[in-house]
Amino acid sequence: MKLNKIFTSNMVFAANKPIRIYGYGSGEAKLCFAGMEAIVRSESDEWYIELPAMQYGGPYSLKLICGGEVTELKDIYVGEVYLFAGQSNMQLKLKESSVNLSDCVADDRLRLLITDKIENDERYSLKDGWVKCESDNMGDWTAIGYHTASYLAESKNIAVGVVACYQGASVIESWVRKGLFAENGIVLTDEEKFIDHFEYPDWNGDGVIYSYALSQVIPFALSGVVWYQGESDASLAESRIYKKELSLLIDHWRSEFKNESLPFVVVQIADFIGRAGEPWSNIQKAQAEVQNEKKNVISVKSADVCESDNIHPPTKIHLSRRIFESLEKFL
């Protein structure tokens, strides 16, 4: 019996949420974590167990004992764990942003897990497990993830896990299971879709990113989700239904992560003079209004704190502060 790949040393579990641990293989094993012990039995190729929720704390170790084989993970904390998901503005690295890296501080309390990507262009991937924030790697962190986690860690003096799952030029249809939108009456012709559907076919098929990347961290217990996506759905027809699509995504992810009240912070896409017009403003409006239709959803405006002459505005620190302040409301 083996642990799922997302369980490694340096990881963070979410406080006040069930401690979900799962993996592969059949048989019987003993699981030990933070003074708790449990026997895991499985007759299938997968196993899953929940331990009681815990308060902030650490470091702890986790052991899986199966027959004569012992797997031990170390330096594990219980803190806050957020999924940072979306497209290229979520993917934008700290070293690509407007801050000076010399002004940024490495912090042992911050831990990063990056899911595998179809576009294999990341310094880290799932095989690297959870990575501590150090001076030689923080430039490769998502800028929004780094700043937001830093604010949280400093404010609460806790460990913060950043689960990064993003893909530039990705459409929302790719982030939910295949067929979900069609089952809910959302069907568009090719002529009605934005060009990114066709320019980036490797990852923009129905359900592709959900199946390939997001599924890697389901159903790990999260503290919340930060969602920044929408630039690739900016056709007129898509923009008019984007709010329904986003609402379906929120419901779908809450079901998959086994938390019907899972907090969401939805970032409104920034203004961009190269695409000003009704489709762009429709997306922004949909992202602003979804908080009025869904509980535990907060919309965050970016247009007034980000550049408008670049579709990838490099200034992320002020936006991250707003995201942090929104997440604080859920704590």
User: What does the average pLDDT come to?
Assistant: 97
N- and C-termini, Cα separation: 35 Å
- How many domains? The number is 2
The CATH class label of the largest domain is Alpha Beta
Compute the CA-based radius of gyration. 20 Å
**Which runs of at least 5 residues are low in confidence (pLDDT < 50)?**
none
Largest beta-sheet characterization: 11 strands, mixed
Structural class: alpha/beta
Number of helices: 8
| CATH architectural designation of the largest domain | 3-Layer(aba) Sandwich
Estimate the global geometry from the Cα principal axes. globular
Order of helices and strands: EEEEEEEEHEEHEHHHEHEHEH
Strand-residue proportion: 25-35%
Tell me the number of strands: 14
Task: Please bin the fraction of helical residues.
Answer: 10-25%
